[in-house]
Amino acid sequence: MITTNKSWLGVTLAPQIARRHFATYLFAVFISSGYAGALAVLQPGLLHVMGIAQDTQALLTGYLSALQELVFILLLGTAGALSDRIGRRPVYVFGLALTGAAFALYPHAQSITQLVLFRLLVAVGSAAMIGMMVTVVADYAEESSRGRANGMQAMAATLGAFIPPLLATLPRVFTANGYDELAAQQWTFAIGGALGLGAAVVALYGLAPGAMRKARETRESIRQILTEGLRTARDPQTALSYGAAFISRGDLAVTGAFISLWLVQYGTRELGMTASEAMFQLAVPRTLAVVGGALIGALLMGQIADRVSRVTAVAIASGLAAVVYGAVFAISDPTAGWVIGLLFVMGIAEISAFVSSQALVGQQAPEQCRGATIGLFGVAGAFGILVGTSGGGILFAKIAPSAPFVLFGILNLAVFLWSLWLRKRLGEGRDSVGVPA
Question: Which residues form a coiled coil (predicted)?
Fold first, then answer.
């Protein structure tokens, strides 16, 4: 029998959750997060190899990402409600397996139409996978250490963000060993796809089955669960968490989609590099700078979110992000040395917004419709990614590469002001559960 209220890595676990369940979850997060950023890093090289003109690559990048987010908007709430009914584990396993399989198919597209089809498969799997990545942490941790649990989750997610730049080094390795550029891309994506299939097996045997048993007892329909989830948005702190989800996921999307694209285009156009060389020499080290900052930010915000009110934590994160994303306006040469420092701080800012928003929604989500509430939180995040990628692609192509970042600097400022207003409304720096600000 599993004893209750164990602690692991500073996180107090919920009853019936063992350390191995939480460890399995963190591994699943590690792989899930790798997929969240992999296409953003690898796709520029693939588009180049497919012979797509540079002046359409930014628009296509934005449109493909927008398509994925439309699927997220349609499916995240449903995936959350389904997990409230049948359990988190089967939904998470399905998401990992489908994402891995579709990822392996992606570079075999013979046309833009096939590329869109494979991206749709990735999107359906990712909706289930990312939805559960956010939901399960709220199940596994007690409220008193939810900030630290989200910090641990964000740290695992940040470590997972090392996967895309590591995968991005593989095309150069394969071409150096005699493979042509397309075959190098196909083998790289195949290795990436195998990670998801392997993680699905680990999740099948390692995640807690208790949620499934509990879910079978409910007689509510998925529609009823979704309706209850929608009602939670009337709570002002839940509403703020949705706004924070919008900007935090948009921050991550803009950084992931356009930093690598900016650098690959700059390297091939201004420095005469091949796509593989630009990815390896320019994009990889600067992506690693963002990831390094995110590792620091995950630890810091995980601690901060348990020591101040969750509304205050959102204010801190969005305020920092407003400054950092606005500062990208000053970049004219993305290879300049000082840009690496800015990207490091950007990593701190974006993961802080991610952790603080999740801690807030986890605090506010009712247990009986937690999956649906956090699924709708994911929908808000999907809208943020949609704005960041589709709108950002247009801004990148038509105005300047820095324009998508400046847009999210302004949006972060809006959420910062919203959080300050709500903090004042809740009274003397205290939120509704009485945590000091």
Answer: none
Q: How many CB atoms lie within 10 A of CB 109?
A: 16
Cβ neighbours around 111 below 10 Å, total: 9
**Cβ atoms of 253 and 65 closer than 8 Å:** yes
- Closest to 402 in 3D by CA, of 336, 357, 353, 348: 336
CATH code reported for the domain at 18-423: 1.20.1250.20
pLDDT mean over 262-282: 80
- Residues β-bridged to residue 8: 11
Residue 333 β-bridge partners: none
Confidence of residue 188 (pLDDT cuts 50, 70, 90): very high
C-alpha to C-alpha distance for 255 and 342, rounded to whole angstroms:
12
Q: Which span out of 38-42, 219-223, 422-426 was modeled with the highest average pLDDT?
A: 422-426
Tokens matching residue 70:
């439309």
Q: Is the pTM of this model over 0.85?
A: no
Sorted by where each begins, the domain ranges of the chain are 18-423
**With bands split at pLDDT 50, 70 and 90, how would you rate the model's confidence at 216?**
very low
Read off the DSSP letter of residue 157: H
Q: Do residues 298 and 147 lie in contact, with contact meaning Cβ atoms separated by under 8 Å? A: no
Nearest residue to 311 (alpha-carbon basis) of 421, 156, 217, 387: 421
pLDDT for the residue numbered 2: 44
